[in-house]
Amino acid sequence: MKAEIICVGTELLLGDILNTNAQFLAKELAALGITVHHQWVVGDNEGRLAQLVGEAMERSDLLVFSGGLGPTADDLTKETVARCFDDTLQLEPSILEAIQAYFAATGRHMPPHNEKQAMVPQKGGWFENHNGTAPAVWFQKDTKRAVLLPGPPSELKPLWTEQVRPFLSDGQQRVLHSLTLRITGIGESHVEEKVGHLFENENPTAAIYAKTGEVQIRITARAASHEEGERACRAYAEKFRAILGDVIYGEDASDLEHTLVQTLTEKGLTVATAESCTGGLVSQRITQVPGSSEVFGFGFCTYANEAKHKLLGVSEATLATVGAVSWQTAAQMALGVARVSGADIAVSLTGIAGPGGGTDEKPVGLVYVGAARGDEVYVAKLLLGNRDRQSIRISAANRALDYARRLALGLPMPGADKLSAEELAQQKQAMR
């Protein structure tokens, strides 16, 4: 079954109200195995609404509406859809009585124009609204069906859950099940280059999404049950894992910081952070995870050179010669926070987040990430480009979190150079 979601209301077009109904309905329809091909927002205009309904009826089997069922003159959804479905509206006494009782219970007299809310399809049907005055209604014409829901989410959601969803699921034999693979350390174009052929499958399907600092692959299977769908999704996910390997750090809601805390907990390890350009973002993300106190005890925000020297022991000579934004400083920051905290793993960040402050030699977006576990010390040079400040900080923080995860698991450190024994000795000597 193909569906379209149509949200009605000029206030939505103007941005005065956040359209959460479309997101809710899309997820609910997907759970029923109903594929949403289009979502629309249309103002309170009879002509434009009628045109959209006519076009949608040619494309899709089910139209789900929200909004435009109120008592005022600009609430035209029900009347317009009725004409498009060759139906007529008639007064339903029980609904009218319920509306009158609603007003009476609040000590008010029902205005005459509220009577229009008691009008229901002659050929279709209606659902009683226990949280408002406007009932939901449905229309049927041949194989085409429309369901009209009130706009307020406090009315729409319970109506859907209690009555509309069971109505639509009657006879539905298919469901959609999805899982999302989360990837960091490699860009969208490189992911697509490696696994692009896997996006051509029909069932399960796969789609790629770029997020700040990571890439996501959403796998969706149509199946007879959620259990069958889950098996199909996981089997297809293994094809991606076989190619992409450990750049896939988790699934679904398990973001990078949750994955790191879980990994450290399972391994019995601790982590500490030293941050400059990210201003404590890494430690903030770690500590928002429940249970992080078991694996995280020290987070230093050493923005000034003086703080890097006094708190972490970064060499004044290093800061004076090669500067704060250098691989040497990143290495010393990681060594310093590891020494002060006693943590098993330490990560550091220093760079230029912009928008100003860059030079030809050290442009905006240049970030050095240090990572240490014992005498294994790595430094990565990131060139994140002249993007907005927050994007640079998020991408840099992601790399630090991923390097901590990799050190905990003993995985390779892509993009990072391991300090040689001689280089490590030099940096330790500089810090004395």
List the helices and strands and how they pair.
Layout: E1 2-8, H1 10-13, H2 20-31, E2 35-42, H3 46-59, E3 62-66, H4 77-84, E4 89-91, H5 93-105, E5 119-121, E6 125-127, E7 136-141, E8 144-149, H6 153-169, E9 175-183, H7 188-195, E10 205-211, E11 214-223, H8 226-244, E12 248-251, H9 256-267, E13 271-275, H10 281-287, E14 296-301, H11 305-312, H12 316-321, H13 327-341, E15 345-351, E16 366-373, E17 376-383, H14 389-409, E18 416-418, H15 421-430
Family: Belongs to the CinA family.
InterPro entries: CinA, CinA-like_C, CinA_C, CinA_KH, Competence-induced_CinA, MoaB/Mog-like_dom_sf, MoaB/Mog_dom
Protein name: Putative competence-damage inducible protein
Question: What's this entry about, in short?
Answer:
This is Putative competence-damage inducible protein. The chain has 432 residues and is α/β, with parallel strands linked by helices.
How would you portray this structure in words?
By secondary structure, this protein is an alpha/beta fold. It has 3 domains: 2-169, Molybdenum Cofactor Biosythetic Enzyme, Chain A, CATH 3.40.980.10; 175-251, Alpha-Beta Plaits (2-Layer Sandwich), CATH 3.30.70; 256-430, Maf protein (Alpha-Beta Complex). It is 40% helix and 25% strand. The protein contains 15 helices and 18 strands. The strands form 4 sheets. Strands 2-1-3-8-7-6 form a 6-stranded mixed β-sheet, sandwiched between helices. Strands 14-13-15-16-17-18 form a 6-stranded mixed β-sheet, with helices on both faces. The longest helix is centred in the last third of the chain and has 21 residues, at 389-409. The protein is elongated and about 90 Å long. Pfam families: CinA, CinA_KH, MoCF_biosynth. Residues 4-170 form the MoaB/Mog domain. InterPro entries: CinA (IPR050101), CinA-like_C (IPR036653), CinA_C (IPR008136), CinA_KH (IPR041424), Competence-induced_CinA (IPR008135), MoaB/Mog-like_dom_sf (IPR036425), MoaB/Mog_dom (IPR001453).
